[in-house]
Structure formats: structure tokens, C-alpha cells
Design goal:
The protein has 217 residues and is of the alpha/beta class. Helix content is 44%, strand content 20%.
């Protein structure tokens, strides 16, 4: 019996060291991509239609992944994918890590996504401007939304925009859901103050502090 316990302890120690050695970036993104894949599989299974939008494109990796999995599971998909980002970092320094220095990205690089995917739309500007873009304002039905803007202040307008545009069966994915800024605020506050919890079903968590919900009407 002691021998078995010793072997199990040895294996647990190996797994622990392996998990610790894996970069957080790797484990976070693997989990994120799997959740995006699962969401689009279910959207296809339930024949949910609408457009898709991502707030906070950065390099465009998750944005492109979403387009690919949508095409894989729904060959006849007519969904447009909107990617909104300032490409200038953040409008304030309310968080010690999520700041302009760490997250400024290239608009020209992201814009190339449109050449590869005809249903992609990359729109530059802070959300106060890009959400007033005529094409974005005309979006009526959203089947998948991903908020990856990291900060409470940056998430205010995206959540307000989505409030009356999510269709029944749609998915809302939010990264950095419970990260706390210098003022003690988190995106989770905005979510719970905007959406009726009975209509938003928790599906899964992903990565470091991400969540995914499904709107059931």
C-alpha cells in the first residue's frame, strides 16, 4: 500500500512540475482556442445565425481562429467577423500589466487578415469611435462575441453594445473577467449589472481568468 502511495506521489510531483514549467501564455491560449472551437460547433449544431465580433484584436490570432472554425463547422456560413481595436494600447493606466507598453499592436498587420478572409472586417479606433462606425452600428444579430479588452473601462461600451444584439443561442466570451484594476473594479461587475443571470448560462472557464456564457433568452 505504501509503495502505491509513493508511486502516486511521485507521479503527482511530475505532473505538478510539468504544469509549472508550461508557459501561462501556452496553457491560456490552448484553453481559449478549444472553447472557441466548442462554441462554434454548438452554434452550427443548433443552426444559430448572426455575425461575430471581437473587441480587442491585438495580433488577430483568436480572431482568425474563430473564422476558421466557423468555416469548418458551417460550410454555408454567411457570418461577417468584425474585429475592433485601437491598436494603440489602452486609453488609461488603470492596471499595472494591461497597459500601452505591453499591448500596443500593429494595425497594418491585422488589416492583412481581410485579404485572407473575405468575411473579415478590421476596424481601427477606440470603442467610443469604432462602435459608431456605420457598418458596426448596423449589426442586428450577433451569434458570437469575444471581449478581450482587459480593462473595466474598456469593456463598458462593448457590453452596452451587445446587450440588445445577442441572439438566443449566442455565445459571449470574456477574457480577464475577474482581473482587478487599480480602482478595485473588474469586468465581471459590468456583466452582472447588465445581463439577466437567468438568461445567461455559464458554460465554461478558460485560461487564467476567462469565461464563456450562452444567451438563452
Amino acid at each position: 500500500m505504501l509503495s502505491l502511495i509513493s508511486k502516486l506521489t511521485y507521479l503527482h510531483n511530475i505532473f505538478s512540475k510539468l504544469i509549472i514549467s508550461l508557459p501561462v501564455f501556452f496553457t491560456h491560449n490552448f484553453s481559449k482556442y478549444m472553447n472557441i472551437k466548442n462554441a462554434f460547433y454548438n452554434l452550427s449544431l443548433d443552426q444559430i445565425t448572426g455575425d461575430c465580433i471581437e473587441f480587442g484584436v491585438f495580433t488577430g490570432s483568436s480572431f482568425k481562429h474563430a473564422i476558421r472554425v466557423d468555416a469548418k463547422f458551417n460550410k454555408k456560413s454567411e457570418s461577417l467577423f468584425y474585429g475592433l481595436d485601437s491598436f494603440e494600447g489602452f486609453p488609461d493606466d488603470s492596471h499595472p500589466y494591461f497597459n500601452q507598453e505591453n499591448f500596443k499592436s500593429s494595425y497594418s498587420r491585422a488589416k492583412k487578415i481581410e485579404k485572407k478572409f473575405s468575411n473579415a472586417r478590421i476596424i481601427k479606433g477606440f470603442f467610443s469611435d469604432s462602435l459608431n462606425n456605420s457598418e458596426v452600428k448596423d449589426i442586428k444579430k450577433i451569434k458570437f462575441a469575444y471581449i478581450d479588452c482587459d480593462l473595466y473601462t474598456s469593456a463598458i461600451e462593448p457590453i452596452k453594445f451587445l446587450e440588445n444584439r445577442l441572439v438566443i443561442g449566442s455565445y459571449l466570451m470574456i477574457d480577464d473577467f475577474v482581473n482587478i484594476d487599480r480602482h478595485g473594479r473588474s469586468i465581471s461587475e459590468l456583466f452582472y449589472s447588465t445581463f439577466n443571470e437567468k438568461k445567461m448560462v455559464f458554460v465554461s472557464s478558460f485560461g487564467v481568468s476567462g469565461v464563456i456564457y450562452r444567451y438563452v433568452g
